[in-house]
Amino acid sequence: MTTRNRTRQQSPRSWWPVPVALVALSAIPLVMGSLRLVQLAGGPELIAADERFATFPLPVVLHVLGSAIYVLLGALQFVPRFRRRHRTWHRRAGRVLVVAGLLVASSALWMTLLYQQKLGTGDVLYVLRLAFGSAMIACLILGFTAIRHRNIAAHRAWMIRAYAIGLGAGTQAFTEGIGQALLGSGELRGDLAKAAGFALNLGVAEWVIARQSTLNRRPRHTNAQHTERSLHDNSAHDLRPVS
After folding, report:
1. CB 3.0–4.6 Å: which of 11, 101, 133, 171 could bond 108 by disulfide?
2. Nearest-10 Cα torsion for 56, 62, 64, 68
3. 184 in the Ramachandran plot: left (φ > 0), alpha (ψ -120 to 50) or beta?
């Protein structure tokens, strides 16, 4: 590898778009959640009021705060160079992320079971929220268990899946708009548009996991070929007649 290529791979320009894109994807739900907290705290009603949260806002508060920590802190975990340079921070932040992620998923399940369904949503979305909330908890637990057993590949895979589910609300802001523009409005169409957000995120997550697995195997294969070639050259050199 030339010095120029090595510099290009290590350049911050090669990795900064990833966390920025992840945070940008979550900007809409984070802003809306922040405005909801301001409203619940007695501030101005900058968004439409929701009477479901007025009598018992605790699950909403926990969900918004946990989501902000999970999204912003988790985005930095996708920067390999940052992880390598700050290993202690990476481990400590990972523990915080697990707690924040469990808070996000459990509060989402809490809200789904506690509050009445929002007007315009149906049973399909209700079941999906229960399923994906439970799946996020399972992914976080499996990811934590994997790193405890020093299975780094499995740890990364499960944590990426959990993060993809956690970013579902951000992607749904786009899938709902596109779905409504193409198919019109309706309870079932809206539920399926939200389901498409989860599906799209998990599809991208599986692609990232598969790509990382391929890249992790490639150096070992290259090194094996290099070793085999070196042994072959050395053997040929040993067989040369001495002049």
Report:
1. 133
2. 170
3. left
Residue 206 CB contacts under 8 Å (≥ 6 apart), including other chains: 161
pLDDT tens by residue, 81-127: 777 787 888 888 889 999 999 999 999 999 999 999 888 899 999 99
The torsion defined by the Cα of 162, 164, 169 and 175, in degrees rounded to 10, comes to -150
Detail the DSSP E strand segments found in 76-205.
Answer: none
- 147: phi then psi, degrees, rounded to nearest 5: -70, -30
Alpha helices by DSSP H, listed for the chain, are 3-10, 17-25, 27-40, 58-76, 80-85, 87-114, 123-148, 152-166, 168-183, 187-238
At what angle are helices 168-183 and 27-40 packed, to 10 degrees?
Answer: 100
Q: Which residue reads 């899938």 in tokens?
A: 175
Task: List b or e across 158-184, with b for residues whose CB sees 16 or more CB atoms inside 10 angstroms.
Answer: bbbbbbbbbbbbbbbbebbeebeeeee
> How many residues appear in the chain?
243
